[in-house]
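User: Here's a chain of 180 residues. Predict its fold as tokens.
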Amino acid sequence: MRKMIVAVVFAAVIAAAGLAAQDALAKASDGGSDWGALGFLMGDWSGDEGGAMGQGNATVTVRPELGGALLVCHHRLDYPATRKHTGTVEQELLVIQRDTEGKARGVMFDTAHNEDHYAIDISPDGKTITLTSEAQPSVPRHRMVWVRTGDREITFTHLMASPTSPDEFVPETAGKVQRK
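Assistant: Prediction complete.
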């Protein structure tokens, strides 16, 4: 019985330490870093995402790299097998860097061997982050909209525009993630 109590107390202390570390990272990245509104994204996230392929499980990890010069975002989307589709995994790597004037820009790579360059705009209240890929002939254009809906939650929408109508975006997937 005594060993069980010690184990429970030990587990509670470890869990509390983990939550405290996540909260410290979120607080430091939200206001304490020079990433501004983008700092809120730092940490580990999980939730649901869906679109034409069905509903999947999304995990997102955002970390500063190279001494804080970059933000690196790993996104993984697991679609389970259904009657209409085989199970698939999509992965993306987004690297965000500030240019010489301090404006954030990004480049994304994915498992389909795409490379997209993004302009990043942040709403005046800092709650909406919009990434829009550069228009290119014969390549679809992408827009991602991330909205901070709470202290530990983000909703997001991925939109796409055809090369012939590069400013007419239509929704492709949408979802919601919570900070782990």
